[in-house]
Write a structure and sequence with these properties.
This is F-box domain-containing protein. It holds the Pfam family F-box-like. This protein is of the alpha/beta class. The chain contains 18 helices and 15 strands. It has a domain of 32 residues.
């Protein structure tokens, strides 16, 4: 039998009992012990634990409707669920107009929104039936924009309340009303104006001029954009946001083919050492050197940099000068901690000199390095080795990408690295080798001898193949790469229509 002394009430239960005692007269009889407990008897602390297992916007474990149903049980559970229900907006799941109407009519819910993921362009979400706003809906949105006192708010309200409203203008209006947003993910597409409305909003805020009563994105720390046709000159306002620390750009192409795309023009938009961004990831990107240098020099402190390139995404890869980004990164050599370069960036787009990474010893704080083998070894010369003195002294994790063919002949250079690692890179704890070749090309190599050499150094060795198969034939731990590809009734009414389209 449970002893209440051993299991004292949780804070929420104690507070609830105090309120009940204050409200009820002494003559009210105690509840019979035989009555079963109901959902209302669960303490707030347990509810919060349960809600952790109900992610709202998870593709694999979609629980948005479950949370919406729970929010309609009673006022108490509604108060616990509502913040999680409105913590994020994802255009893949959520209808834009009802969401906008709800957060305009309830500022507390608007303050709960911390992340947004939006997609727009031709055909995006075209399969959905259009939400038809009521007269009350339109009045709420109109008054919300009027309260923001932005220039042209009437035209903006008309555009939002149009039955054929562009999704992208609704996203921008949601952004206006979510002052605590910390993360924004954008899948860019074609729009019928020069730049997307959300980006125009950021541009106006970043310019420093007053833009009505719209917040200044003081909490936005992470931004990811999969670009369609956007260029850095158009994206330059995002780098002026005061709280932004992490930026990921996917599919960015910068070849400076027009006068307005030249680095001199961009330098006026991104002055040196003016951006607060500390982590930059450029995925599937193609950027010529002078443009990249202007971008990298605009950061006050850069701690993490990633650059990957996908040959399949582009056809004219010989359109500009490309070389090592390390020349541009030298300005951050005293603070850069993480550097990831694509397995096939080098040598795929130009005939740059192999074994180019010779100045990494200047990067005193660099502890995580991912590079192709031919950036460390001159694969054009037989018996080339890695210059250990050129590696960063603080290195703890090293990942090397190895292609099929001739590069397999230079794996002995990594044995030479093992013999000197204790003296030159004493902090190294982990070495990963990722082989982009089929098993038949690499199975003849003496992996057992390779493993034994590194085992003597105390460094954890992990070897991966591009295929999905797990190799158990030699027992040396060779793994296959996985292919990852305000009243209660009013609130209830809002939530029911919010996700119904």
């Amino acid at each position: 039998m449970l002893n209440e002394k051993d299991f004292p009430p949780l804070p929420s239960q104690a507070a609830k009992r105090t309120r009940i005692k204050q409200r009820l007269p002494a003559a009210v009889p105690a509840r019979n012990d035989g009555i079963a407990a109901s959902i209302n008897d669960l303490p707030d602390e347990l509810w919060l634990e349960i809600l952790d297992y109900l992610p709202a916007l998870d593709l694999e474990d979609f629980q948005l409707q479950t949370l919406s149903n729970l929010s309609r049980v009673n006022r108490r559970i509604h108060s616990l669920v509502s913040e999680r229900l409105y913590a994020g907006f994802n255009s893949f799941f959520c209808a834009s107009y009802p969401f906008l109407r709800t957060i305009i009519s309830n500022q507390q819910l608007a303050g709960s929104v911390q992340s947004m993921r939006i997609a727009y362009g031709h055909g995006v979400h075209a399969e959905r039936s259009k939400y038809k706003p009521s007269v009350l809906d339109k009045r709420i949105v109109k008054n919300g924009l009027k309260g923001k006192d932005i220039p042209g708010w009437k035209s903006w309200a008309v555009d939002c309340n149009n039955d054929e409203a562009e999704q992208e203008i609704l996203y921008a209006t949601i952004l206006m009303h979510t002052p605590n947003i910390t993360k924004l993910t954008v899948d860019d597409g074609e729009v019928p104006y020069v730049i997307p409305k959300w980006l125009d909003l950021v541009r106006r805020i970043g310019s420093g001029s007053r833009f009505g009563h719209v917040h200044k994105f003081l909490h936005l720390k992470s931004l990811q954009i999969e670009t369609s046709s956007l260029k850095i000159r158009q994206l330059s306002p995002i780098f002026k946001l005061p709280a932004l620390k992490n930026v990921t750009l996917i599919g960015l192409i910068e070849l400076a083919r027009t006068e307005e795309e030249q680095s001199g023009v961009l330098q006026r938009l991104l002055p040196i050492r003016t951006s607060a961004v500390e982590e930059l990831s450029l995925k599937e990107a193609l950027i010529q050197d002078d443009i990249l240098e202007v971008l990298l020099r605009s950061f006050r402190v850069l701690r993490r940099f990633e650059l990957t390139y996908s040959h399949d995404r582009y056809t004219d890869v010989d359109s500009g000068p490309f070389s090592s980004p390390l020349n541009s990164l030298k300005i951050h050599r005293l603070e850069l901690q993480v550097l990831h370069l694509s397995n096939n960036f080098f040598g795929s787009i130009s005939s740059i000199s192999p074994g180019m990474v010779k100045c990494l010893h200047q990067f005193e704080e660099l502890y995580d390095l991912q590079v192709p083998l031919d950036t460390l070894v001159d694969t054009g010369r037989p018996h080339s080795t890695i210059s250990v003195d050129s590696l960063p002294p603080a290195l703890t994790s090293l990942t090397i990408f190895v292609k099929a063919g001739r590069q397999l002949l230079f794996l002995d250079a990594l044995k030479h690295l093992a013999s000197q690692s204790r003296e030159c890179i004493p902090l190294l704890r982990e070495l990963r080798i990722e082989l982009f070749s089929v098993y038949e090309n690499s199975s003849k190599y003496d992996w057992e001898g390779f493993r034994q050499i590194w085992a003597k150094t105390g460094v954890h060795l992990e070897i991966r193949f591009e295929s999905d198969e797990y190799d158990e034939r030699d027992g040396v731990g060779i793994l296959g790469l996985r292919a990852d590809t305000d009243t209660e009734s009013e609130s209830e009414s809002d939530e029911e229509s919010l996700y119904s389209n």
